[in-house]
Amino acid sequence: MFSKILIAEDHEIRNLGVIKTLEELQIKNYEFVSYCDDAITKLKTAISEENPYDLLITDLSFDGDSRVQKLTSGQELITEVRQLLPDIKIIAFSIEKKPSIIDELFKKHHINGFVSKGRNDAKELKNAIKKVYEDKIVIPQEIINSIRNNSFEFTNYDVHLVELLAKGWRQQEIEDHFKSNHIKPDSRSSIEKRLSELRENLDAKNNIEMVVICKDLGII
Both ends of the chain: CA-CA distance in Å? Predict the structure, then answer.
């Protein structure tokens, strides 16, 4: 089992649940930090002392306060940690629900596991720690299903189009905007066709529902 763990979490009430989980796994060597910058400092110190951490458990969102921070999110922390310790195991422990953001954590940031905060999260965190220790990748099944069901690739054109719809722009306004900014295709029929394709792929009944789905998926 892991011998030295660092937990980055700024809500003390959450730490109590993590402590209980670690005690059940009989892990005694662990430390908590409330700031991402402090996590990097501890990791660097452990390296210099030749006693590095072998697991990082981190939240993704951290509340800002009067203290100025270089790193303000779990994603930024993970990116920095991967450069510092390429082989350290990382578990994200977060309320994040958007499949696209979670998918990116695995594909871009190469985390080893993701656990959703909520009901039964202590049990899920315990299982995730065990599996990650066994060199397994832990992705929640509901996230896998969402990613599979929404594998349609969005282009920059699509994202811009949906963002304008989300702002309440009418199709005529979008057409005028595309033409004035040389964004192709810019004809009304092409815009309508692309919107129809997007609705079909996202199984949305109308543009409003499509915008909501795109927000839930983290596309916009």
Answer: 40
Q: Read off the pTM.
A: 0.67
Domain limits for position 202 = 156-216
Q: Summarize pLDDT for 11-36 with one digit per residue, the tens.
A: 766 667 788 889 889 998 999 999 99
Residues 34 and 102 in one domain: yes
**CA 105 – CA 99 distance, rounded (Å):** 10
How far does CA 168 lie from the centroid of its chain? 27
Same domain, 126 and 17: yes
Domain end among 112, 127, 149: 149
Cβ atoms of 42 and 58 closer than 8 Å = no
Please identify, among 149, 171, 186, the residue that sits at the C-terminal boundary of a domain: 149
Let me know the angle formed at the C-alpha of 21 by 15 and 22, rounded to the nearest 5 degrees: 90
Whether 108 and 186 share a structural domain: no
Distance CA 58, CA 12 (A): 13
Neighbours of 79 (CB within 10 A): 14
